[in-house]
Amino acid sequence: MGKMLKTSAEGRKCTFPRCTHILSIYNHEAYCHIHLDQVPQEQKPKSLTRPHA
Ligand SMILES: [Zn+2]
Fold this sequence. Notes:
Blueprint: H1 33-36
């Protein structure tokens, strides 16, 4: 049995509308590298150290 690497499922597609890019199993994002830069990063809180959570 091989070790279970932390990879995502195979054959996932970028969730960007009309994008048919297949995401790498090492890409745990919902978008391909192209669209990852284009989508708003609102869902990704940058500041982990907040005054009060
Ligand atoms: Zn894409």
